[in-house]
């Protein structure tokens, strides 16, 4: 099966958008944890957990959409 370069470029763009959005979610979660009084280490862990959770969710959704097409 041949994959067109346009499809590959669109997939790369979607992955970049997902990575950027998940980074914003992780940063916001870490900032909110720090404002709430958590230590820097705990805030970093909460931000990383939010990043990983949102990345998992968005990549699963992206996989579902790609297979549905």
Describe the structure.
The protein is mainly α and 69 residues long. It is 87% helix and 0% strand. The protein starts with a helix and ends with a helix. The mean pLDDT is 92.
In brief:
Helices cover 87% and strands 0% of the residues.
Fill in the keyword field for this structure.
69 residues, elongated, 2 helices, mainly alpha, single chain
Termini distance? 15 Å
Overall residue-averaged pLDDT value: 92
Low-pLDDT stretches are none
State the helix count. 2
List the topology elements.
Elements: H1 5-35, H2 40-68
Helix pairs in contact: 1-2
